Amino acid sequence: MSERTERSEGREGMPGKHGMSERTERSEGREGMPGRLGMSERTERSEGREGMPGRRVAAEPRAAGPTRRSAGMSRFAGPALRYLLLLLMTVLLVGPFLWQLSTALKSTGEPIYGPDTTLLPTDPTFGNFGKVTEVIPVWRYIGNSAIVAFASVLTNCLLGAMAGYALARMRFRGRGAVFAALLASLVVPFEVIMVNVFLTVRSLGLVDTLLGVLLPGAVSGLSILVMRTAFLALPRETEEAAAIDGAGEWARFWRVALPSVRGSLAVVGVFSFLFAWDDFLWPLIVLKNPDNFTLTVGLQYLSGTFTNDQRVVAAGTMIAVVPLLAVFFALQRMFFRGIGEGGVKG
Predict the structure, then answer these.
(1) Domains, the chain, ordered by start
(2) Which residue in 45, 174, 255, 315 has the most C-beta neighbors within 10 A?
(3) Residue 7, SS3 per DSSP
(4) For the chain, what is the total number of helices (H) and then of strands (E)?
(5) Closest to 161 in 3D by CA, of 272, 305, 302
(6) Which one, of 88, 92, 122, lies nearest residue 105 by Cα?
(7) Taking CA 156 as the corner, what is the angle to CA 211 and CA 342, rounded to the nearest 5 degrees?
(8) In whole angstroms, what is the distance from residue 51 CA to residue 125 CA?
(9) How confident is the model at residue 340 (pLDDT cuts 50, 70, 90)?
(10) Contacts with 311 (C-beta within 8 Å, 6 or more apart), sequence order
(11) Contact 341, 264 (CB under 8 A)
């Protein structure tokens, strides 16, 4: 009993002393040390936060000033250079056209050469256009050129689309060789094969006919290449669905593929019209009868024995340019849409 009493008293007494002392020391340590450390650390951090940013803020404007200026100058120099290049290209491309138009509108008393020449005519007149009709049968020549040009548009669109579809969709032996020959024809100048083409046209009896003028340009490698690229960009699923429904090869081409590449057809049509209307060398070689002359060949009579007025020549040139501008502006939406048709696949 005595031993148990002493042990119980010892157990009750000792923990109390040690517990009180340890708790007191810990509480004092927790209350004293963190407070000191916290105050010192907070003071140092606050001093560092108050001191360091001030130095950085004071140093930043000095270093950032030239950078901002250089960035602003580079941001301004880029658009300025682009607009300068666009202005230069506009002057080079549109300048000769405006000068020719100004010359066509000038009267006889206004100078067209020398330092006194001005861009804008002081006394504009349309009399030079009337003189063109007096020197040459301009309306007949316009009709001949229109026949050749529109026929060339029709044949290039139809034959070029058919050939392009065959190269893009059909599988046949020698397709790679045909495509290689097509690409080779694009880099061969017409002057190299002009003699052979003339001998072929003469053997067919088409010399001095508009059909002989049309035949070499009835379909071009460029037209086939444009249409092939357009057909390759089309998804095959639509044609496969048409084939499942029983559509043949011609039906898939005519009813499914061809309506989907109208923009590319506009590109082919514009280029075909441009090449056929502006062609001068080949009609000059093939045509002999003045009644069959195209407009580009007939305009050469404006500067010769009967007349040598550059104002009349400029007026005739403007007459030849007007149909080209009309066709382009009429088809410009489809033209630019067709340029991008082969760039992204559907």
Answers:
(1) 128-339 (1.10.3720.10)
(2) 315
(3) helix
(4) 14, 0
(5) 272
(6) 122
(7) 165
(8) 82
(9) low
(10) 103, 104, 106, 108, 112, 128
(11) yes
The residue count of the chain comes to 346
User: Does pLDDT of 28 surpass 80?
Assistant: no
| Nearest CA among 104, 106, 109 for reference residue 299 | 104
pTM recorded for the entire structure:
0.72
pLDDT mean across residues, the chain: 80
| pLDDT, tens digit (0-9, with 9 covering 90-100), for 184-241 | 989 999 989 999 999 999 999 999 999 999 999 999 999 999 999 999 998 888 888 8
**Token match 């000191």: residue?**
36
Alpha-carbon distance of 25 to 176, in angstroms, equals 95
Q: Enter the tokens of residue 167.
A: 């190269």
* Structure tokens belonging to residue 326: 């009309």
Q: 3-class SS at 307?
A: coil
Are 295 and 138 spatial neighbours (Cβ–Cβ below 8 Å)?
A: yes
Q: Which amino acid is at 53?
A: P
Residue with tokens 């508009």: 210
3-class secondary-structure state, position 309:
coil
